[in-house]
Amino acid sequence: MMETISEHGCFGGVQGYYRHESAETDLPMRFSVFVPPQAKAGGKLPVLFYLAGLTCTEETFMVKAGAQRVAAELGIILVAPDTSPRGAGIEGESDNWDFGVGAGFYLDATQAPWEKNYRMYSYVVHGLRQAILREFPADPQRIGIFGHSMGGHGALVLALRNRDIYRSVSAFAPVAAPSQCPWGRKAFGNYLGPDREAWKQYDASELMRELQAPYPHGILIDQGLADKFLAEQLLPEQFEAACQAARQPLTLRRHEGYDHGYYFIQSFVEDHLRFHHGILTR
Question: For the chain, what is the mean pLDDT?
Fold first, then answer.
């Protein structure tokens, strides 16, 4: 059952915040949804899932990105989950900003003590998606996904592994090769264990190397060149090379003067919504 936390009129639609019990995480999960004004006319609308980055919540994108105005114009439902389970009571889960609470990395943990609750991959792909299709006028045949940083990693991975579900994918400054960066090695080592073969299923660059043009209509990535995490953590050149090998059309835009924050996302979020709309309404 879905509990309404709050709802707010927004650009003729409704911005809402909700909570439900998740079978995947075995905990209550919070998420946010923007329903555009076109929903009042009836019928199903395209839906776009946004995965946020480290330390963020289900509120971050909806409050900071300024996406509702364009979503209202285009008639797109926006959905943003939280970035991890909360309240698992695991010792030390809140000790680090880049691991544990707020840092679920959109994977299904296999290592104790994380494996019971830290199952964000299954939650987003199955539990949350099913709840959205049940409770909101979302078209199951027109689903896209995008995200930022850790969430950009999640969006790419979920899309590449579930091409039958997600018809479009894009990212802002994604952690593009997590097996090769400190954030990814820390998360994967603790959540998945030391076997690096097990890491590949959650590494977009590794996944792309095994495919051939999985998204023929293209993938869009925006990256700020003033991003302090670019060289050590994000590694977009790894994903770019993998796309070239896979003959995957990729638009990787590099922007002078833009950093890793939401001013960057605000600047280009309209492009992403129009990119997804163009694919989801073909």
Answer: 98
Closest CA to 137 of 69, 215, 39, 59: 39
Whole-Å CA distances, 236 to 48, 157, 178: 23, 14, 10
Residues whose CB falls within 8 Å of the CB of residue 10, separated by 6 or more in sequence, listed in order: 34, 68, 72
CB neighbours of residue 1 within 10 Å: 7
Can 149 be counted among the known catalytic residues?
Answer: yes
Q: Which among 35, 39, 25, 34 has a CA at the least distance from the CA of 59?
A: 34
Q: What is the mean pLDDT of residues 193-217?
A: 98
Contact 14, 8 (CB under 8 A): yes
Residue 34: strand, helix, or coil: strand
Cα distance between residue 58 and residue 52, in whole Å: 8
Instruction: Note if 6 is an active site residue.
Output: no
Active-site residue (options: 153, 203, 227, 277): 227
Distance CA 18, CA 31 (A): 5
Given the residues 22, 32, 84, 149, select the one marked as catalytic: 149
- Give the span between the Cα atoms of 10 and 267, in whole angstroms: 20
The rounded distance, in Å, linking the Cα atoms of 253 and 267 is 13
Q: Is the pLDDT of residue 47 over 90?
A: yes
- Is residue 260 flagged as an active site residue? yes
> Which of these is catalytic: 148, 260, 276, 277?
260
